[in-house]
Target: Phosphate-specific transport system accessory protein PhoU
Amino acid sequence: MTREQYVKQLDLLKESVLSLGEMVELIFRDSMASVMDLDVKLAEKTLALEPEVDKLEEGIEVSVFDLLALQQPMASDLRFVVSTLKITADLRRIVGLSINIAKIPGRIEGGYVKPLIDTKKMADAAAFMLENSLKAFETQDVELARTAARRDEEVDKLFYAVWVELIEMMAKDTTIISRATNLLFLIRYLERIADHCCNICESVVYLSTAERVKLN
Model:
């Protein structure tokens, strides 16, 4: 393989990760819309997208292994290739959590036990983190990665506040336990999605600076 082909293969790998990121953003956005509006049809449409994600993920893995086996990249190229594999794994886990969110509308009967005001704030913060972690990867912008990761603290605070409120509500009224449990799962999924966004930000810092950091 010539140097030109090698560089092209690296570029294609980056484009593939960004394409996966676009698909992940779509699935997360639609899963949240379906759960906020209890829109079962949108939830079913979202669930049907998972096989496309699997194909993209498989293609990225094949590209990474080909590069490692045939080109033996060094230094910054090696960090880039390894980081794309790690970012892909985090994106795939975000899809898994979003799919779990999209399953909630089909289980809810009688609406939510409380308005989803804080839950919406969590989702907005997580969406910001996802969007900007991908932008940071595209441009290798370390400061943007750190900025995106800082929103994790906001998500964590909201998570614990809603968690405590729901536990107290269930203690006072056991008839709401089933509906409240779905909300507990929802905020847990959002908290985990924010964590995976932090992981992506850490990978961006690593591939850009060779520095391993913890951002959450």
Remarks:
- The chain has a mean pLDDT of 95.
- The chain has one domain: 3-209.
- The chain has seven helices and no strands.
- The CA atoms of residues 28 and 98 lie 5 Å apart.
